[in-house]
Design goal:
Length: 221
Amino acid sequence: MVLLSGGLDSATVLAIAREEGFSPLALSFDYGQRHRIELEAAKQLAADAGVQHSIIAFDLRQFGGSALTSNLDVPKNRAEEQMSKAIPVTYVPARNTIFLSMALGVAETMGAADIFAGMNALDYSGYPDCRPEFIEAFQKLANLATKAGVEGQTFTIHAPLIRMTKSEIIQTGTKLGVNYALTTSCYDPSPNGLACGGCDSCLLRRKGFAEAGVTDPTRYQ
C-alpha cells in the first residue's frame, strides 16, 4: 500500500516502493479537502507509474478545525521559523491517523504487510503526525490491533522520507524518474489549478526545488 496524495512527497514514495521491488496499490483519500485537485494529480501519477489506484471517500469537514476542510483562511508567506515552531491552522485533526487506519484495513483485507507513507519531519509545517514517534507508535498499534497481527503477520509502516530535506526528496525522485510536473502541493489553488505560491506547502516546494538545483515545473498564479 502506498498513500498517494498527489503531492511531490507521495509521488517520490511511490517511486521508492517500486524501486524496492514492491508492486503497490496506490491509495488516495477524498476527505473534503479544499485542494481536491490533488486527487486528479494522484490519478495521473498512478497511471504514469502503471499501478492500481483506489480512492476512498469520507468527509473530515464534519470535524472542522482546519483551513483545509473549512472556510478558514490558509496562512500565506510565513517565515520558516514560524513554520517550524507552531502547529498551523492547516493541520487537519487526526488526518494521518485516519489515513493510516484506512490503509491498514485495506492492507489486512488484501493480505499486504507493508504500508508506505510520505511523512517528513524536517521540511514540514509542524504537524505532530509527521514525526518518527508517530510512525513508530502506529506500527506498534497496527500489530496489536489487527487479526493479522495477532496471528503472526508483521505490519511495517515505511516512511522513507522521514529524515530527508525537501531538496533531498526531489533529488531522489528525479533520479527515480518521477515526473514532478504531474504533482501538486498547493493548499489553496485557484479554480483552474494554479498554485498560490504563498502557502506553507508552496513555499517549502519552491525552496526544495531551488536547493536541489532542479527546475520547478509548478504553474503558479
